[in-house]
Write a structure and sequence with these properties.
Layout: H1 2-13, H2 28-31, E1 84-86, H3 100-108, E2 115-117, H4 128-140, E3 142-146, E4 149-153, H5 167-175, E5 182-192, E6 198-209, E7 224-231, E8 242-248, E9 255-260, E10 265-268, E11 300-313, H6 325-328, E12 341-353, E13 363-369, E14 375-381, E15 387-398, E16 403-413, E17 419-424, E18 433-434, H7 445-451
Antiparallel strand pairs: 1-2, 3-4, 5-6, 5-17, 5-18, 6-7, 7-8, 8-9, 9-10, 11-12, 12-13, 13-14, 14-15, 15-16, 16-17
Amino acid sequence: MKTRNTLIALSLLGGFLASSAGQAAVSADEAAALKTTLTPLGAEKAGNKDGSIPAWTGGYSTVPAGFKPGNRRPDPFSAEKPLFSITAKNMAQYADKLSDGAQAMLKKYPDSYHIDVYPTHRTAVAPQWVYDNTFKNATRANLVEGAAGPMVEGAYGGIPFPIPKTGAEVMWNALLAWRGESWSWDGHNVLITPEGKAVVTANGPGQLQMPYYFKDGETDFKGEYWMLRRINAGPPIRAGEGILSRLNLDPENDRSWVYLTGQRRVRRLPNSCCDTPLPSAAGVLSIDEVSVYTGRMDTFNWKLLGKKEIFVPYNANKILQPTSNADVLGEHHLNPEHVRWELHRVWVVEASLAPGKRHLAPKSIYYIDEDTWMPLLGDRWDKSDRLWKTMWQMPFVMPDIPAVHTNLYGFYDLVSGAWFTIGIMNETTNQYSVSTRYKDSFFSPDSLAAEGVR
């Protein structure tokens, strides 16, 4: 495909950016750009040449009048209309700004899939203390080689590598993107079969916490950057089951557990990584496909192909407005009438299977937003070099955090025709609430056992 050829050219032009471990922090002179030509998180502050991407002017931090945490999140750009729509008929003229997966979806479903492109808004925002820590990280953070591949050392409370030089640095930025300290949500995981039948695989409330971003926690930080706990309310066969994860900057110390109602006990997952199926995803989404990518660095070699302007889902509050899940779940994909796409600059990273490693998808390409460092799109090829899965994530404007944040993501299986999504919240009563900090014991196996029921 044209996009893939373009990325190969980017790779040749930017080969010096190839991933490696043991990278040194940038110089003080380089870091100074974070206060001039770059945003505080490391994106280009200026817009593009034709103005279709505007300059960053501070992000979006205006909390709507009357908004109550947990309620349906409003769409700050609801009055806007699409600038144009990309279809199977006109996609050729936009091919250089479309991922391989987006092009494949347009071709596979020409009668139902289209991409509505809206004006670009650079809404990324974080508290000043996150900006301050990001500036410090630029000159103090390093990648060091660990048992699980390149791992972060010397970073805290901000983007670790705001001026990245390698693919591994960009992917660690994605893992440590600013989302807030603690929050909760309620949503549905839904598998849509190749025949278009929607099957809820899990639903219920969840809680997440990022100790890496505790404003006052640097001296006590022990490396655990991500904690998650979720107890299933349904469907009936899954009610009472639970999952708990604690991720570490040294992935050798990652830990995950599940509560199994049939056994009435908590069991640790023996391999909470890589292409191991996620327990609440009916076996179709792997653990390293959570939020497009959540995994170890040693499974793949990471090559930074460069930066590129492409159409990506963005400022996606539009999809939160329907009051029925069925309104946003199409037979073969999300209802495109509710999906907002914008033109943004993204870092492009290629993952190729490392020697001696095994994975169902030996090659992937990821598109990481320059403003938020969130992975927005990802494409995976199978062992036959077929484009297998195209993954996506919907970033929402959340000025009360303040952040651009998400928990709605999924993939389209281009081979089988099935697709899967996590975080459908149109029928729930809690579309993300900022929480007070949870106690560490809340994310413990004992707590999971006490909460799980049947």
